Amino acid sequence: MRHLFPASGIAAVVAAAALTFVPIASANPSKVLASDACSPSFNDPAAGGPGTCTRRGGTPFDVFIAQLQQNKFAGAWHFSPKQVNVDADDSLTVENRGGETHTFSEVSQFGGGGIVPPLNEILFGTPNPPTFFLPNPPGQPTNFIPAGGEIAIGPNTLTPGTHLFICAIHPWMEDTVVVR
What is the pTM for the complete model shown? Predict the structure, then answer.
């Protein structure tokens, strides 16, 4: 009985290590996920909702606004991972797993406003704060990603170096893309 515990302890450590490394090895290094937790109350004009959510459950619109007022961000609205490394000449896929439309818009620096004046008013105290959007390459539209959709950003945009992206609708959603 005394020898059973050390053996089972070693087996547990090995199993934990295997489970830890499998998800890391299977992660797609050239993919960013956009997430949110909108709820049907985002679609209720009486609640002040903008009518933008396609999912069930989640954060009520008034709670979302309270989070923005208190924290200047809503944590369930985010990109992951926060930084991704991409090889030169590769594309990056951005998948929207949330219930609202998001953008993946390149900026020169973080900390600027977005394109939704009421959210800018809450976040920055003005509907028109400074923005740091980079111009889109000719013929390339703004990267709006509908709920459940995805886009690919190619090597014409992702030149070697560090690129900063935000959601222009929810400007606290930030991501750094390093192209090697």
Answer: 0.81
